[in-house]
Amino acid sequence: MPNLVCFDLGNVLVRLRPSMRSVVRREDQPQLAALLNQYCLGNISSPDFFAQLGLFFPLNTDPATLRQRFVKNRLLGLYKGASTLLCELHDQAVPVALLSNINEAHWDCLKSLRALNQCHYRLLSFRLRCQKPDDKIFRCLENISGYSGNQIIFFDDLMENIQAARRRGWCAWKVDPDTSIEGIRERLHDLNVL
């Protein structure tokens, strides 16, 4: 059975700007972090999230404008070479999964990208109501895909997620966002996947 190659999205395939936590008052940051976490877990609907998010900003911004800014100010698009990499894996019939802590608004922006739609499995925290590094989300991928242990090659930018994947026996590597695609290509070449 060929290996399953699994990617996180943010800072691995998708370039990100800093979180909006950095633009609110320091005393509001924990409350905003909790709100963002609940949205990422799918525990808050998009309309409710943007209504609550508006309370953190002094300008009277309607929810639609706030949603647009929330997406535009965070997502910078795919890293150069990410689309080509995913297409190469697809063309070589390598099974590919996305395993991401992501919210509905960000996914709504990314889901139309052809390269991401070619991925066989898309496990997203807001749909599953769990997120990395919780073991549950890793088990979900194993159950859905039929792959497990060292059959799964996993790339993420956070060491806590890498460690959680390794506890399940996955071949997991931390990605440097500055050299993301080059590092992934090198590792996949070393593993004879590319």
- Low-pLDDT stretches are none
CATH architecture of the largest domain: 3-Layer(aba) Sandwich
What count of domains describes the coordinates?
2
Class of the largest domain, according to the CATH hierarchy? Alpha Beta
Radius of gyration: 17 Å
Spatial order of the strands in the main sheet?
A: 5-4-1-6-7
**CATH superfamily (homologous) name of the largest domain:** HAD superfamily/HAD-like
Percentage of residues in DSSP E strands: 5-15%
Task: Count helical runs.
Answer: 10
Structural class of the secondary elements? Answer: alpha/beta
Mean pLDDT: 93
Question: Can you walk through the features of this model?
Answer:
This protein is α/β, with parallel strands linked by helices. It has two domains: 4-15 and 78-190, Rossmann fold (3-Layer(aba) Sandwich), CATH 3.40.50; 20-73, no CATH class. Helices cover 44% and strands 15% of the residues. It is built from ten helices and seven strands. It has helices at residues 29-40, 46-53, 63-72, 82-91, 104-110, 114-117, 125-128, 135-145, 159-167, 180-190; strands at residues 4-7, 14-16, 75-78, 96-100, 121-124, 152-156, 171-174. The strands form two sheets. Strands 5-4-1-6-7 form a five-stranded parallel β-sheet, sandwiched between helices. A two-stranded antiparallel ribbon has the order 2-3. It is globular and about 55 Å long. The two termini are 16 Å apart.
